[in-house]
Structure formats: C-alpha cells, structure tokens
Amino acid sequence: MKPIILTSPLQGWASPLEAVPDPVFAERMMGDGIAVDPTGDCLHAPCDAVVLSVHASGHAITLRTPEGAEILMHIGLDTVALGGRGFSPCVTEGASVQRLDPLIRFDLDLLVCEARAVITPVIVTNPERFTIVRRETGKLVGIGEAIMTLEPRDAADVAVVEGDTVRRTIVVPLVHGIHARPAARIGEIARKFVSEVKITKDEREGNVRSPVALMALGVKLGDEITLAATGPDAADALAAIGDLILGGMGEKAGSGAPTPPAASPPTSVFPREGGGPGITNDGAAGSWAPASAGEQGARKPATTLPADGRLPGVTASPGIAIGQAGLFRLAEIAVTREGAGATTERAALDAALGLVAARLASKSATATGAERAILSAHTALLDDPTLTEDAHAAITQDDSAAYAWRTAIRGQADALKATGDARLAERADDMLDLERQVLRALAGEDLDERLSFPPGTILLADDLLPSHLLGLDTASIVGFCVERGGPTSHVAILAATMGLPALVAVGPALAEITAGTPLILDAGAGLLHVAPDAETQATAQTAFDAQTERRRAALANAAQECRTQDGVRIEAFANLGSADDADAAVRNGAEGCGLLRTEFLFLERESAPSVEEQTADYQRIADTLDGRPLIVRLLDIGGDKPAPYLPIAAEENPALGLRGIRVGLAYPEMLDAQLRAILAVRPAGQCRIMVPMIASLAELRSVRTALDAAAAATGHTEHVALGIMIETPAAAVTADLLASEADFLSIGTNDLTQYALAMDRGNPAVASDLDGLHPAVLRLIARTCEGGAVHGKWTGVCGGLASDPLAVPILIGLGVTELSSAPALVPEIKALVATLTMDACRAHAAAAMNCISAADVRTLAREFRP
C-alpha cells in the first residue's frame, strides 16, 4: 500500500498535538496527528475521502480515505457549546470529497471571541492501522501543503490470542523509554479496563497499573516488549495501551531525532554510605539535624585548619555574618516492626495515605511551576497499587503499618536505582520523601515539616544544590560556605537572591569544623574566620553593625529613582524567578525586572508547560510588578539545565552544545508556545523579550521571524522589544552588528566569563578562578557597550557582576546603563550608584581593564573611593 499524504486543511500555524490545551487531544486519547491554529475561515479536505460523519453542531468532521485511514478534524476547543453558531458545513455524511474541497466554513472572529481556543486538531483516529512517518510542525502552512504522511502498520504488529490471554509485541518508540510520565499515562489508561495487563521485558514482568513497576523494568528506546491482557475486555485494553505507547505520548523519537543519553549509574546527593563532609544519611529523607564531630570525622581524612583560623574562599554573595557552624545530618524516623493486628494496621495505613493525598491535592491547587510538577509526581507515586499491595501484604504478616510502608517503598526505590537510569533514581528519592510523609502521618505528626537550624547558623557543606537551600529555614541561617562550587553557580545566584552572605570553593579544610563552632563569615573579603578571638569578634561586630545601618538607610531610600551623583540615569532592575521574587523586588525599590528566568516553569517536570500555564505565571509576575518593565528571557535550557522531556543527546561538553536559543530553534513548537504566552500578557508592551546564548545575527533573525509569526497568529499588533543576551565572546565582539537589529543588549556575565576564560563554572577544579572581573571579561563588556552605542541601543548587565558592589562602578564606567541584581541587593546598589560620578567611574574602569588579573582588579576595586 502506498503512503498516504495528508495536506493542510487550513491556513495557519502547524503545531504538535502537545500544543493543544486539552488533554483529550494533547495526550492522544482520540488518536495521533497534529494541530493547526487557523488564520482563514474554511476547512478543506486534506485528501480524497468519504465523509463518515459531520457533527450536529458543525464543528467537527470525520473522513475515511480509500486505504481505510480515518481522519477527524475538530475546529477549535469547546466549540460544541456554540450549538452550531458560526459553522456552515458544506458536505453531508456519505459524500465523496476530493483533496482541497471545502468541508466547513466558519466565523473565525466569533470563535476567537467565544471559544476557548481556535486551534484545530487533525487526528488519525485508527492509529492501530496507520503510522505517521512524517509530520510538518512549527511553521506556517498553507491550504494544500503536505503536513502528514501515513503508512500502514507492519502486519507483524498484531494481537495473538492464547486461551484467555491476548498478547501483543511492540518496539518502544519513546525517546526516554518508559519513565515516570509515560508510566503514569499507561496506568491511567489501564484503570479504564477490567482486564489485567502486564508488560514483559527480558523475562521481567510489571503490572501496567503500577508506574513504579513499569519504571523498574528499565524499558528504553528501541526495546521490544510484550503486552499480555487477561479478562473480558482484554483485546480492547491491549489495543488502547499498545497504541498509546506506539503513539509516543509526545516523546516519540522521530526520523532525525537525537538518540537518548546513555544511562549512567544513579547518584544521590545524600549518599547511603560514607557521605560527604558534614552530611550523613541513614536512608530516610526529609529533615536535617547537626552532625556530630565523630560522624563527621569518620567521613574524610583530617585536613589541618590554618593556624590563624582564616579559611579563604570565593565570594558567591557579599556580606558579613556572625554565628555558629551548622552541619547536615539526615535523621531517621524510628519504626517498630510488630503491629497491633492486620485490621488495625491496615486502617491506619489507609488513613495516613488519605491524609497525605489530601495534603498533596491542597498544595497542588495553589502551587505553580516546578513545585506543582513535583507534587503531581508525588501524587502519582502515592496512588501506585504496587506500593499499597506490598504494604498490605506485609501487614497480613503482622508487620506494623509504618514498617510495612517503609519496606514497600524501599524495595521499589532500590529497584528503580538498579536500572542505572539517573531519571529513575530521582524518582526513587521522591519515593523516600513520600515514605517520610506517610510515616509522619502514621505518627500523628504535622505533615508540614520545617527543616530548621538554630538561630544564627552558618551552614557548612561539601556542596549544595538549589533544592537544599529552598528546603531550609532561612530565617535561622545567616550565611553558608561550601567546599566546592563557583561564584557563578546557581547556588551562588540563589544566595544573592536570598540576601545570604556566601563563600564557595573553600576547600576540604571546611570539613574539619565541628557543629557549634563560632564563625565569622566575611564573604565580601572572601574569608571564613573559625573560632575567632575576642578582638576579631569585636571588629566583625562593628563591621556587621555598619553593614546593617547601611542596608537600613538604603532600604529607606529605595523608592528613589536610581541616578549617579552627577544625575546620570542608571536603571536598577532585579532578576526574578517567581511572583514572590517580584514582590520582594518591588518592596526593595526595583524599577523593573531585567531578567525573568523562565526555566523555573520548565524544569523538574515530566512535560513542557502549556501556553495557558505559562501565560498565567508570566501575568502573575507582571501584575506584581504593577506596570514596571518585565524582560522575559526565552527558555535557557540544556547544558547544566536539562529537561527530561527534551530528547537532547548526551554531549561530551554540554556547555558548548545544544543549549539556550539553540534548543528553542531546534524545538520550534516549544519556542512558539513561549512566544505566544508572553504576547498574551497584559498590558501589552510591559513585557520585553530577551534571547539567550546568541552567537550570530542569523539566530536573532530566526527568533524575530518566529515572533512575527506568533504575533500574526494571535492577532498581536503592538511592537514588542526583542533584545539579546551577550553571553558568548562571539556576541560581544560583533555587538555592533547585533545591535543593528536587536532592541537592547544585556550581558550575562556568568556565562560570558565561562566562555571567555574557557573554564567550566560547574567544574570545582577551576571554579575558584572563574571571576567576571577578569580584565578579558571587562574588555568584552566594554566592546559590547561600544557596539550598542553605535546604533543607540542601551546595554545592561543581568549576570552576577550586577550584584557585586565592587563591580558596579566599573560597569557604569564601561557604559552599562541598566543593572539587574538580586532583589535583596537592589537598595544597596541604588545607594552605591548615588555616590558615583561618571568621570570617576570611567577612569576607574580604564584602570581595571589595564590590570593583569581578576585579583588585581578586586584589589583596585576595594581601594576605589567614589
């Protein structure tokens, strides 16, 4: 049978089904296909066919090709509620039509005003018989332009009946295999049928109703699996689940799709044995307590502290903190094995599971972005029948509910880790988190457990992740130090955002400090004083009091417009990642947002956010800013910020591979969705768009084309400023060329420093030498400002240097007119700018560029007096 070519029934923007804001279509419950967001008002036949049905409301039609492919076209979403208004069918059931014949005329203006959306899915409703081997999405299509090619399925893909069991063998097309999201979708479909369905791979078997059991099979792209169904509706269940997997669930590896990264052994931030300095772990998850000196000493050979007690490090966030050492220890919840009887223990477990489920649902209702995705994953795992069945089975053997639940959780968590897949290992950590929540519910304890330390704690660890800081009681933590890391790491950025003094790259001597040791953290000077004497304590207290007074005065004057002493306007913006950040920025006098990190919506989740979800979050931040400018950075993902739903192949050096706007251009549907979401924010014009990781004018032009297409498709007529981030040396030295078409330039000093100095900011071996005040970086910043000025375009800085008081006078002297810092630092930045004059800044910047090292620049900067 020859391939079937379907042409576009509409003029408009072609997108994958995932772009449709309705799970019925987006999750391929009706079948596989694409969607077209129309700009015209007539639906045309995509091929020669017979009309199977025309919906009574006129909004949908189904065709059958001569080869037997059944094609559903559904104009808009929730359009059945219009009761036929706006639709004029041109054909009736049973009619024969030829390609391009008009099928339904519709009032596009009416649909735009009254329907939930006008995007139109074009669906192959019998995918068990036909495979889509080619589809055109992420582009404008015209009526009659080829959008899909169908081929009949291999005859080998048929169900085989063996007594009461129906079997079907298929090859998995999912680029990431069966991980959390596909496993949950398979389980959801399976629960609609009475029959029991199992998947077998390499003689290992898993119940499809159990996401954990499916994930533990370790099914990867290209694996052959066998589905076996037993029961009254076995054939239907087998067809539905098999077609769901073959349909790809939005993760199908296309003809040219990159291969998935090779599996790597699972790693844990909290090692089960022999943890890092200051961190011990006994297998539980959820709370922290100080580690004893004995526990700490057992983990790492002794390293002699300097005799003067001064440990040098690299400034991640400036400031002075006085307090005592706090170390990490993960505390175990004690449980007894013996139960009080199967009936009592089962009732207790079921009640605890219900409490945790209700808590997750309540939190999900108000959560946004990554938090919502994590809560959804926990809910799916909590509903897993394998866990409850295993726990109930243990209870029948006289185990207590707590012991039975822990045994069930850890058995499945170990199975996930044994797959060798890092993604599944992360789900194992989620399960250990759920273990703790249910055990607390069984014990009658508050489920909202606070991770707390004594007041005045300076936190010490070998390394930290952003999730560590976000889960701690920062009201009691006055600063932190880590052995590794660099000043441009995400933890450093988060520390500045939180206003916490912080040092990184302190080295292994940090592990010698015991809990409770008095400390003085002078992050601005790059020093940690261990067990300081009385004189040092008094000096530090004086400096701390002066710092506190400066901050108080700066905050009192934070609402004033940011200008130099001689009247030059410097915009004081803030870097944001959420509406809470925006609220803090406004309270601290920020005049706008110079960088909204949109990856907060895309990371730590199993699928990309919808246009509506993005719009809601961007709108919430815009509303909080109350009319102040909002510069939205397009998704900066890849490299050190992977997303599990994007099939980016393993790269030898991710920092030099597919990241930033390169990902957006490689996945145009995702780029289009984000552009549409930004354009939907009101009032129009408050949002400006910034493109990350630009290296050429061609990339900027491609984004401009995509922006124009999104604006045309959504009817957006207002001008939208489109600027670029200068993060590569290529962009810096060609800034004059880029500024001819960009509306503004903003320098990301963290990545620019990394690429200019050829040092990976995530590599602890070199991170301590990675400093944006290196003369080479300063010269690239100067070149950027000069290039922007050629075309009258302003240049800002949204990287870490904008939050560094030592760097601010230099940046202004180089020509920077906008500084976007951490929200907590905005008052101090504005107060500093008010003491500066342009002549002094220019002379200071010229001297800095003539230094021979970053250390020399910092020495010069400390001596600068405005």
Describe what you observe in this structure.
With 866 residues, this protein is α/β, with parallel strands linked by helices. Helix content is 35%, strand content 19%. The protein contains 27 helices and 35 strands.
Which characteristics define this entry?
35% helix, 35 strands, 866 residues, 27 helices, eight-stranded antiparallel β-sheet, single chain, eight-stranded mixed β-sheet, alpha/beta
Summarize this structure briefly:
This protein has 27 helices and 35 strands.
Q: Portion of residues in helices?
A: 25-40%
Using only CA atoms, what is the Rg? 30 Å
Assembly of the depicted chains: single chain
Give the mean pLDDT: 80
Determine the number of helices (DSSP H or I, runs of at least 4 residues).
27
What is the element layout, followed by pairings?
Layout: E1 4-7, E2 12-16, H1 23-26, E3 32-38, E4 42-44, E5 49-54, E6 60-64, E7 70-74, E8 87-89, E9 96-97, E10 102-106, H2 108-114, E11 120-124, E12 130-135, E13 139-141, E14 146-152, E15 160-162, E16 165-171, H3 180-190, E17 196-201, E18 204-207, H4 211-216, E19 224-230, H5 234-247, H6 293-297, E20 310-312, E21 314-317, E22 320-326, H7 342-366, H8 369-382, H9 385-396, H10 401-418, H11 422-442, E23 457-461, H12 466-470, E24 477-482, H13 490-498, E25 502-504, E26 518-522, E27 527-530, H14 534-556, E28 571-576, H15 579-587, E29 593-597, H16 611-625, E30 630-633, H17 661-666, H18 668-679, E31 687-691, H19 697-714, E32 722-726, H20 729-733, H21 735-738, E33 745-747, H22 749-757, H23 775-790, E34 795-797, H24 808-814, E35 818-821, H25 826-833, H26 838-849, H27 854-863
Helix pairs in contact: 3-5, 7-8, 7-11, 8-11, 9-10, 10-11, 14-25, 15-16, 16-18, 18-19, 24-26, 26-27
